[in-house]
Amino acid sequence: MDTEAQPTQRDRSSHPGAPGAEDRSRFALAARVADWVPGGRITLTLFACLAFSLLLNAFVVQPFQIPSGSMEQSLRIGDRVLVNKLAYRFGSQPRRGDVIVFDGTGYFGDADYVKRVVGVGGDHVVCCDKKGRLEVNGRPVDETAFLHPGDSASGVPFDVVVPAGRLFVLGDHRSDSSDSRDHLGSPGGGMVPVGDVIGRADWIVWPHRHWTRLTRPSAYAHVPAPAEGTHG
Fold it and tell me: Active-site residue 13, yes or no?
């Protein structure tokens, strides 16, 4: 007679290499941690949600509250926007028309700012032409779709070439915006380093009546590439 003990179903399932054994071990560990933590599983779940939220905020999206009227009518004071922090992480670069949030420390002020990109590296940006329009690389840009009602392209004339790796930014409410125009004589010439861009504002999520997706306007679609030799 075969005297070797035959493994039961329990023996097989509890073997270290058996399917599901590792999952049960992890579950048991989580249960022990939950017993140790004050508040048990509820507290553990809240900690997990908080950790996930912090990771999401650090690497994927970040909420940002609009502090001023410099981007009206597109963005109003108190609006909450979601900033896409992955928009420029994998080789993509800010494009004309994008609404970006950036760290202005050292050249705008010690704070984060939200503005619209009107010029990228190499662009020749001029204001204004005979019809009062912004010109980028010799092409007039019709900004009426997003400019604050009653505002002109700029009350201050300027003629700049954007250095490589920098951005020329303006607020949509031109008469109430401190932007690249106001810092032309400051360090960096009012140009935002691409490396200081936190991300692209993609959604207004609060208040719910303002909920919308922020898309790149077509106004800059026909702007030609900068001419050779204009890169700073």
Answer: no
154 half-sphere exposure, CB direction, 13 A CA radius: 23
80 shares its domain with 116: yes
Residue 23 lies in a domain: yes
Residue at a domain's end among 40, 59, 78: 59
Residue from 14, 53, 68, 70 carrying the catalytic annotation: 70
206 bridge partner residues = 80
Could you tell me the pTM of the whole model?
Answer: 0.75
Averaged pLDDT score across all residues of the chain = 82
Check: CB of residue 157 under 8 Å from CB of residue 125. Answer: no
Q: 41 versus 63: which is more confidently predicted?
A: 63
* Residue 16 backbone class (left: φ over 0; alpha: ψ -120 to 50; beta: rest): alpha
Tens-place pLDDT, residues 187-218: 888 999 999 999 999 999 999 899 999 999 99
Name the catalytic one among 74, 115, 154, 177. Answer: 115
Going by the DSSP 8-state scheme, the letter that residue 26 receives in this structure is H
Q: Strand order in 124-127's β-sheet?
A: 139-141, 134-136, 124-127, 158-161
70 catalytic residue (yes or no): yes
Six-digit token string for 221: 């679609």
Statement to judge: residues 68 and 176 lie in one domain: yes
